[in-house]
Amino acid sequence: PQQTASEAVVSTQSTGVLWTTILGIITFLSLALTNKLRVSLEVEKVGLDVKEHGGSAYENYISRRLSQMVSASPTFKAHGIGGSKSPKPKVETIVENDAAC
User: Per-residue pLDDT for 86 more than 50?
Assistant: First the structure.
């Protein structure tokens, strides 16, 4: 029996989805087994944006959020840290010289 046009489309699409899934699994497993899915510990500590682009993408957000956390924390308030009289904490970014940049 011959396939109708819609059956042929469904068959072709199903084959494509199956093929893509198989290749995706093979690619993911090969990258996972060779430890290519993670960055180095150094880059993870410094931040990928700092290491690759030389600056923090979230510098203002981190400073603002850290300031909010400090001012809202009872532990910091008990030690006189935070609140309106306390200066905002500085968040510094450490960028090491990298020959690859």
Answer: no
